[in-house]
Structure formats: structure tokens, C-alpha cells
């Protein structure tokens, strides 16, 4: 069947021959510390994919590597060692042992490794504290809510101290409010721990909230890999475009992705030069940056005129600090209240406090009203880059 697929047979032909091609030509790599989300509808092949990654299923063709070591075809004992030492799994339906306490469940993976009881107790308690279950150690799974049981499953994976977490529809059985709390907790935990996560979901909003990158699967094939913004703005085909058409864009798009170019003054220009630049750009204020594009503040025409009257040769002394610049990672929906308080364009900065652009009401309306359009299948999504021109 593999050869028939390589020769161009489609899924329907394979089905008629009595076989199912669950995953076809899926190739990707996941960076250390990355949350890589695989999403698709039921039957798209995503759960089969994660079972090949952890060695529960052996691919008919192709290879799986963990830290450059191939696990495809490993002897059973070596494969068990990989699962115990490098990869932990969080399941959709918790997979807790009902006759064991919360503490015992959290430390179960360590017990299988043969760790001594004192170390098991220490690491299990630490993991339970991480997920907010301190004080629940002696309860049993049936005494917990669904969300709490999933926290135990997550604690078990964290206690194992593996670098890789595999999460198969881990939150899909939870109520919406509990699901969001678990998503928040996962984001918070991984900001501290830096685990490499492969997260399987059929929920596009969940994928876009959690994933550094997302792989969209259809009929066993990965049709697009990209960031949330790339998939939302540049879907690879009509299938992906239909998937994202009802997504709340304001929750996905960030300030950095919608900001527009701006001209920034250097702090050592004269007041006359600054006024001339404002006139050319038909504005009464500009942002000011240093030689490394780090934001220093804002300068208005009135400030420039006062600097002239005060005899200043450069505008540095007249710059007014910006109290609340916008971090580029800020979701667009968090900007609305801020824009209502600050009618001027909002400066957008990166992690190094460098000015990358400005947010205007026009750019927000444009981003909200934009219709996603499909590119040719397999085409790379365009990445928008804002720029700043220093004067």
C-alpha cells in the first residue's frame, strides 16, 4: 500500500483495496521548548500520528527521531526506556488508577522507573503543587472533578521529569470553563518549565491559543504548518480557510502582527528638524528612539516649540516618556480599552524595548474585517513584518 501511495494512489483507492492510510507523508520537526499543536477533525490521523511518535504504533514507512536518535524499530526494552526517560503522555480520559491515591497516581511513572519511595514522594508532591493540588494527595480519583483528575494526569507527566510531553486531546473531555483553566495552567507551567510539547486537538481555538506552531491535518496529510497568525491570515487551501473563517481574530492576532510602519525621531535631532519631519508626515507628534531603536518616548510639536524657546539644541530634553507601550505579543482584543484611553497611535515594542511600529484604529478595523484567502496548497504563509524608519 505504501508503494501505491508513492505512485500516486489516493485515499479512496486505498480504501477500496481494503486498507486505510491513517497518516500519509507527514514530515515535521519540533524545536526544544516548543509547543507544537496537531489539529484536525476526527479521522484526520492526528491520534495515530502521536501514537507513532511515542512508539505505540510502528509506521509502515518513514522514521521517528527523538533527540536525533531513531526510535522506529527499537527493541521493546529500549523503547520503554525512551518513554520513561524522555517522553510523558497525558491522555484524554485521564488514565488514572482508581484504587491508588492522587499522590500514588502522580508518582506512578517514577515507581515504574524503580526510583526509591522518598524520591517518588518528593517529586510527586512537587508536581501536584505545580498543578494546584497541594492538600489533595490522599484523595482518590473518584473523589475529584474531571478538571482535577486531568490535573493529576498532568502532574504525573511532570513528575516523570521528561523533556517531552505528548498530550492527546488532553482537555477535550472537560467543560469549557475548566478547559480554559487547564489551558491557562499549561501556558503558565510551560513558561517556567520550558517543556517540548506535542498537543493533539480538534479545537481550532485551543490550537491557536496554545501552539507556537500548528500543523493542520486532513485525511492523514498535513496540509499546512505555521503560526496561528500565518494560518489565520494565509490559509494554505480552501479547507484551512473554511476552518478559520469563524475564528475570533481579535483573540489570535497580536499587536506586532497588525502594527504599521512608523517614522521614529532620533533623540539627537534639533527641534527644527523634528518640526520639519512632523510637517512632512502631516502629524503633530512622533515617537523618539535611541540609536538602537529602543523607545525613549514621544515628542509633540508643542514640545518642540517649547524646546526652541528654551534654547535646546536637541530634542532629547523635551521627550515625554510613554508610560504604557504595547508589547508586541499583546492580543488585539486587549488593545480596545487602551485605545479608548489613548487616542494617539500606540507604540509597539519587542522584548528588547525596541520600537517595531504603531497601532492605529484603522489597522485594527482592517485586521478585524480581513477575509482569509487560500494560497496554493503547500505554499509557505507570508510573515508580516512591521518596520521603523529612524530619522
UniProtKB/TrEMBL annotation:
Tell me which Pfam families the record gives: ABC_tran (PF00005), CBS (PF00571)
SUPFAM superfamilies linked: CBS-domain pair, P-loop containing nucleoside triphosphate hydrolases
Where the record annotates domain ABC transporter, the positions are: 3-244
InterPro entries per the UniProt record, alphabetical? AAA+_ATPase, ABC_osmolyte_uptake_ATP-bind, ABC_transporter-like_ATP-bd, ABC_transporter-like_CS, CBS_dom, CBS_dom_sf, Gly-betaine_transp_ATP-bd, P-loop_NTPase
Q: Which keywords are on file for this protein?
A: Amino-acid transport, ATP-binding, CBS domain, Nucleotide-binding, Transport
UniProt KW Protein transport keyword: no
Question: Listed GO molecular functions?
Answer: ATP binding
Q: Which residues form the CBS domain?
A: 258-314
Q: Which domain of life is it from?
A: Bacteria
**PANTHER family in the record, alphabetically?**
GLYCINE BETAINE/PROLINE BETAINE TRANSPORT SYSTEM ATP-BINDING PROTEIN PROV, GLYCINE BETAINE_PROLINE BETAINE TRANSPORT SYSTEM ATP-BINDING PROTEIN PROV
Family as reported in the entry's similarity comment: Belongs to the ABC transporter superfamily.
Q: What is this protein called?
A: Glycine betaine/L-proline ABC transporter ATP-binding protein
Organism of origin is Saccharopolyspora rosea
